[in-house]
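Anyone opening a protein record will find just a pair of labelled lines. The record below illustrates this layout.
***
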Amino acid sequence: MDAAFRELDYDGVFSYYTVNRAQQFSFTQSGRDDNAEIGAALPEAGRPGASFARRERRTLGFGVGYRTVTRLATFRVVHKVVDGVERERIVHLDGPPREILRVGDEVTYMLQSGDELLAFGGTAPASPYDRVFGRRYDQMSDIYQVRLSGRHRVAARPAVRLSVTPRHQDRFGYRLWVDEETGLLLRSELKDSEGADLEIFQFTSLRTGADVADGDLQPSIEGAVVRRLSEPPSTAAAAPSWQARWVPPGFQLTSAAVRQSPDQAGRLNTLVFSDGLAAFSVFIEAMPEAGAGTVVTRSGGTVVLTHSTAADDGDHLVTVVGEVPVATARRVAAGVFQPQP
């Protein structure tokens, strides 16, 4: 399946369905209290109508809101290997006209003037297709149990279904439908601990092999704004200046870096963890002078959670982003610390 994604020529239309739930805990802050650890109070305060006041000079007022939204989007993907180099074109079939072109490791966004993605500057979020096929199912650890669970049809093609079940409640599970003929992933479901769908990817039509034409790799947007993606400059950290006391079993630190924060106001520390299938990132930066709202947001299988922590040089904002349950992200964020020299 992993090899088919990289080596097969295919042209298909796929749908991407997500269930998004936002839980936002906003607060206002007056004064500073370097001894206060507000993050520890958030789980208890995070319920509708809750309010909490911190003693001494720091005063917090919480407002809690919940929102659940389901979204469905449709895309076309064309993938070919030309002279040994992967080439790919992804077309957004809903919303603003957008196309993503990839030649090897070079990625180009074709956008129209006014598109909100232009605000990302030299970077842009991964597409749903990248999210699904970027997972290395062949490298998953023994934290998951994998079993065959029958044969079905997807996009009029015979498929084998696999169940990928986590052995612990600190990560999500998957169901996968793999094309019998080519090994290509035809459908993927991301499941929470109760078996509810978080996101679904599925081909609705698919052509493979010689039926895929070179001309289908060419963009079709006229007068597009071209945005080539580039990584911001970073400095690798030989020994991370921040660490996590706890991560779920099977997750390993895959990279650690320090770069300038997006607002150029300070330094942003980044830790990235993966178990071969799921991944999450931890960002640590100095707390803004005006304080910061605390947010727990889940978009499909991706959670964004912020947490305040104290260090010798002042309060810091910790943000966890990745494909883990909210409880897992909260425990990771609460354990982030700056080791003593």
The two ends are 46 Å apart (CA to CA). The chain has four helices and 20 strands. Confidence is low (pLDDT under 50) at residues 25-65, 232-237.
